[in-house]
Amino acid sequence: MALQRPPLEPLGTSALGLSAQDTLHLLERNIRDYAIFMLDPTGHVVSWNVGAERIKGYTEQEIRGKHFSVFYPAEDIAAGKPARELEIATAEGRVEDEGWRLRKDGTRFWANVVITALFDDQRQLRGFGKVTRDMTDRRAAEEALRDSEERFRLLVQDVSDYAIFMLDPTGHVESWNAGAQRIKGYTEQEIHGKHFSVFYPTEDIALGRPEHNLETALLEGRVEDEGGRVRKDGTRFWANVVITALYGDQRRLRGFSKVTRDMTERREAEQSLDERRRLLTHLIQSQESEWRRIAAELHASSIPDLDSVSRSQRELAEQLPEPHATQLRELAARAEAATDQLRALGARLRPPGIDRSSLAAALEDYLAANAAEWGLSYTVNSRLESEPPPDATLTIFRICQEALTNVHKHARAKNVSVTLSHTGSGVLTRVSDDGVGIDGSADLRPGPDHYGVVEMRERAETVGGWWTMRPTQPGTLVEFWVPALRRRVSKVLT
């Protein structure tokens, strides 16, 4: 049979004018975050507060007189845990424990439990005070944090494409992952405790670059850098590096994280591409220069000479009898036709409007001179906010010229349109027609019918742009973009 709660002796009054016994009763009735109750010396419940009812699910009438082992899982009861905790509390005055406990409905919760032995003045055991707090949410959060930290640790440790490691506040290596070992060549045992300046070339160390990077990370929170770095074996590689300052409580510097990626292959590919672009640009510039020279010679000598020949032939024909006069007039007509062909060739080699008018006007002039003969109606729509620099203007004009020639030769179109607009830091150009179109799977590798296509693509890509051609309904769309900033174009042409 359960023991009755021993009477409490009057302990005076509180500041609220309540007796100590009344104060305890108020606490017992109103504390909800803790289960606070008493056990008799044999472990049976003799008191119960609202917090105990909320956490464990029993009303005071349901639980009073029951043994407190009812709160323990079966495996703890089998192991004798309830009795052992009372023995420890009796021997040491208190015992604290964390573990699973049971609610009335059988569900488990994670509890922090403190059992305190209660003795009277004669050191006779009167029972136990038991305070329980539901720590399920905190434990779940802690486990989630531990799992997250473990996953992150495994992720960092196993990543091989990036060197990810920690430095202490003075720049000495504190951690090391598999990527760091693969990229830099050191094992963790070899590098731990060494200053990170060991990764920098001697010339950078002499300039204080490692210290400067840490100072910048401290001032700005992070610093990103690209440059040469040194492996354990002394070989160099091109690295992209991000150093981030890490702070703890009260903004105390804990150290730095350092993420390094080996960019050697990408840099070599970019340098190779830049070299190819420089060579192609030089070739195209040489080609344009030669075309300009030929066009100038045609206009300066060949065309005037042929004009003079045809005029002289016609004048002489007026003085000769037939059939010699007719023969001379036929020769004059052939000379005039050859002159017209040379003028057309000169215009194609160096269109007259390209050096003295806007890009849109040069395209208008080109189409005005050719579209009627080709049987095409045309429109030129310019949405340009400003004129592109000369190199970009020439590139755009030449690509459009080739695209329009393809429309004339292959499309059997009736209408063609050219649209110019600024997009980003360049010019987007669209040449569309309503002709027969192309096969979307067409092979556009170099060949008798495809050199114009290859030339268009290479011209765009040489200056750092792109080019596409695709079928539409109806017809074909040629679309390309080239950069139109002077500094970007000049960089490619150096």
In terms of topology, how is this protein built?
Blueprint: H1 20-30, E1 35-39, H2 50-56, H3 60-63, H4 74-78, H5 81-92, E2 94-102, E3 108-119, E4 125-134, H6 136-158, E5 163-167, H7 178-184, H8 188-191, H9 202-206, H10 209-220, E6 222-230, E7 236-247, E8 253-262, H11 264-317, H12 324-349, H13 359-374, E9 377-383, H14 390-411, E10 415-423, E11 426-433, H15 451-462, E12 466-471, E13 476-483, H16 486-493
Parallel strand pairs: 9-10
Antiparallel strand pairs: 1-4, 2-3, 3-4, 5-8, 6-7, 7-8, 10-11, 11-13, 12-13
Helix pairs in contact: 11-12, 11-15, 13-14, 14-15
Model description:
The chain is α+β, with helices and mostly antiparallel strands and 494 residues long. The protein has four domains: 20-134, Beta-Lactamase, CATH 3.30.450.20; 159-262, 2-Layer Sandwich (Beta-Lactamase); 272-350; 356-494, Histidine kinase-like ATPase, C-terminal domain (Heat Shock Protein 90). It contains 16 helices and 13 strands. It has helices at 20-30, 50-56, 60-63, 74-78, 81-92, 136-158, 178-184, 188-191, 202-206, 209-220, 264-317, 324-349, 359-374, 390-411, 451-462, 486-493, and strands at 35-39, 94-102, 108-119, 125-134, 163-167, 222-230, 236-247, 253-262, 377-383, 415-423, 426-433, 466-471, 476-483. Strands 9-10-11-13-12 form a five-stranded mixed β-sheet. β6 and β7 form a beta hairpin. α11 runs antiparallel to α12, α11 (264-317) crosses α15 (451-462) and α14 runs antiparallel to α15 (451-462). It is elongated and about 160 Å long. 23% of the residues are buried.
